[in-house]
């Protein structure tokens, strides 16, 4: 199999991470998710929780109060740090992609690595099955959530992911044109779906080798 | 394998029909596409070309000129015939789905047969690869088309499909929430993709049997 980069965009609670991990196992290639945050942590002066907070969130740009009175370019510290994290993240994604075949979860990797022609997957599901999945891994506080609260929470995470993606890529998160395959996990067995998807990618790679 | 209904929605020129045919072959089940039109032809007084024209097109509703002056319900002949074709088509789809496992191309079958929980696939591709595919099967007149004309033509067919689907189903054509799998054929080998997709559906069916 030739060099392959698989990127996974995913709705929160859809099982995209599990799908990606299984895909990497089936293909016998590297898997990157939170490892990327730890690497950003090493390379920048920011705290891990700050990095975690901004690495998939859109920066909030607040013009200074004298904005209307000045044509001078202003520097916004929050924005600068945010861009710094994004730039470091992009550098890491590029390094990772050069090391060898891999599966990368989120972080706009499909866009950052577009010149490498990654196989771009988007994983999604209906809200009921996402709530069910979230409940299974809920912590003590989350165990008290009602379905209504879960819905609000899930939608708020997706909203942030969408805003991050749209802000940095200029294209629409979850829009079919930006993906090679879109997998709805609502009624499916993620293990089986990842297996067949891995077989499809293997075929694709070997046909590109010829 | 238990009873399975697979529906294929597709953008014009994306290879959705080929994908569906190969899928049916791999699964060893029936395949329905234009056969449905012939069956409508048998059951209604309308000509095949009329049926072909309306079976995936939204009806154009023209209020009569006395519309503003009357509260009486009016009957629009065009609309009635259109609905007649759609109703006959829906009946045929239901009969087909009861006969046994099958793959059905287009015709809002995913919506009409929603109670049977079909496996709903949507096939799409970028405009360049769709033009290329169309050119390969072009007739003499179409062989004179420029890429610009092909783009206009492809978009106009899709526009009709979308309008038909949205009109009769009340949901949005090509929206990911309405499908189990969305396959982009731009860079892929349709034969290989249909093969792996068939394997996935087989797995899904056998796990539902258990």
Description:
The structure is a homodimer of 210-residue chains. Chain A has 210 residues and is an alpha/beta fold. Chain A has helices at residues 16-27, 35-43, 48-54, 77-99, 109-112, 127-136, 147-169, 190-209; strands at residues 5-10, 30-32, 102-105, 119-124, 181-184. A five-stranded parallel beta sheet of chain A has the order 2-3-1-4-5, with helices on both faces. In chain A, helix 1 (16-27) packs across helix 8, helix 2 (35-43) packs across helix 4 and helix 6 (127-136) packs across helix 7 (147-169). The longest helix of chain A is centred in the middle third of the chain and has 23 residues, at 77-99. The A-B interface holds A 117, 122, 124, 126, 174, 176-177, 179-184, 186-189, 192-193, 195-197, 199-200, 203-204, 207 and B 117, 122, 124, 126, 174, 176-177, 179-184, 186-189, 192-193, 195-197, 199-200, 203-204, 207.
Core attributes:
homodimer, 210 residues, alpha/beta, five-stranded parallel sheet, 8 helices, 5 strands, globular
Widest sheet of chain A: strand order?
A: 2-3-1-4-5
Q: Pairing-aware structural class of the strands and helices of chain A?
A: alpha/beta
What is the radius of gyration of chain A?
A: 19 Å
Q: H/E element string of chain A? A: EHEHHHEHEHHEH
Instruction: Give the proportion of residues in helices of chain A.
Output: 40-55%
**Distance separating the two termini of chain A:** 11 Å
Shape descriptor of chain A reads globular
Count of strand segments of chain A: 5
Strand content of chain A: 5-15%
Query: From the structure provided, what is the oligomeric state, counting identical versus distinct chains?
Result: homodimer
Largest interface: A-B, 27 and 27 residues
Largest sheet of chain A, in brief, is:
5 strands, parallel
